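User: Just a sanity check before I run the rest of the batch. Below are the structure tokens for the first item. I only need the designed sequence back.
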């Protein structure tokens, strides 16, 4: 675990105990990235700011639900942000339906069979990632699970930006080929 991830994990643990100083520190460390995710999805600054506020309210109330075994702290916060931004996007659509109709919809969480299929797919993806060079596999994980940008990855791996783009493009092609076998 990187030192940043360990620090974020510690801050989330303190936030779960209602430590306001830890919450302020967590906000200052992560809000720019989370705002960027929200802005990329919504393409509207005001809505992105509103979602960011919702994200941190949700983090304050649910920090105790974060599990290091499931995801890194940044990935968990990225997912919270993405989900809230997508919910905002859905509410924005004209004719998005009314709440009464939404109440009658079934639960869209995966059932036991779907969960087993997803675990199996996850193992297949992990096996295909293992076929990549370790630095390429790590770059793919950081880009598509942790949400790091090409620029951040290029700096992390000390390679030019276009090299990082090539790494990811070629790696995704190899993953697609592996998964189609």
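Assistant: Here's the designed sequence for the first item:
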């Amino acid at each position: 675990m990187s030192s940043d991830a360990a620090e974020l994990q510690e801050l989330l643990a303190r936030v779960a105990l209602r430590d306001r100083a830890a919450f302020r520190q967590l906000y200052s460390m992560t809000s720019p990235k989370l705002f960027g995710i929200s802005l990329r999805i919504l393409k509207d600054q005001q809505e992105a700011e509103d979602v960011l506020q919702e994200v941190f309210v949700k983090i304050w109330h649910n920090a105790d639900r974060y599990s290091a075994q499931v995801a890194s702290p940044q990935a968990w916060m990225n997912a919270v942000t993405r989900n809230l931004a997508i919910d905002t996007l859905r509410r924005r659509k004209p004719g998005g339906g009314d709440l009464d109709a939404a109440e009658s919809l079934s639960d869209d969480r995966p059932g036991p069979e779907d969960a087993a299929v997803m675990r199996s797919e996850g193992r297949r993806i992990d096996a295909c990632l293992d076929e990549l060079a370790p630095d390429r596999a790590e770059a793919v994980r950081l880009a598509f699970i942790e949400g790091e940008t090409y620029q951040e990855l290029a700096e992390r791996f000390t390679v030019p930006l276009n090299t990082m783009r090539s790494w990811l493009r070629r790696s995704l092609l190899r993953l697609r080929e592996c998964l189609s076998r």
